Amino acid sequence: MNAPSRPETIFKYFGSERAGILKDLRIRFANPAEFNDPYEVCPRFDVAAEKTATKAVRNLVILDTQLGIPQKRASELLEDCKKRVLADRVMYHTHRFQKECGEKFRMLCFSANIQSPLMWGHYCDSHSGFALGFDGEHEFFKDLYPVFYDEHRPHADDPIKGQLIPLTKNFEWGYEEEWRIVRPVHSTAAYFETLPVECIKAVYFGLRISPALRWNIEMALKLPQCENIQTFQMALDVADYKLIPVPVQKTPPDVGWWLGEGI
Known about the structure:
This protein is of the alpha+beta class. Helices cover 29% and strands 23% of the residues.
């Protein structure tokens, strides 16, 4: 499995509730067990469980024949028990593994794609939010790794792919071109880190961003710490199903911005 080269710029999408990120510079690492993909950190346990159950059945058949139970009858009873219990045990271990990952790890997710209408629709309040572009070579991203997309879920007992469970997703999510930072944690509390302002390269305004949100962000961009951050407005491509970032000039906010909010 060959890893792609780290992109020069990586992006993160935000809803309007994170309008203050350029001021507080705090970024939240999320619980993977709460992601919108129910298969997140959710490997297969059925194969491993089948192997364990089969071994147990064989051992019990040998024991039962020693106790005088006919081998055929013992085998039938134990196989029936395995079929009835196995599915429940697989689900138990699956949910337990996902829950424990959510308690022991937090993830910060980024994308190499700023032009996807799906991403803007899913993660930016239907295009009314914004995105940040980051310098992928900055020290903050030294532990950044690509997500691998596969048609098959990884096996919990696979010595190779098992190590990539936090970085493996269904191939249907491939359009996200996702990259992640994974942090071990020792508490179930929300986990934040300070975001170095110098790693922020640009702000991207969504197609439907409200005048109030845009004004709020533009005010933050006037802070001395943000003077080198570029600004873009997303626009519809004239031919293809993709969005185009159009550079905008930093100008004083329109004094009538509030009119569109009904104030």
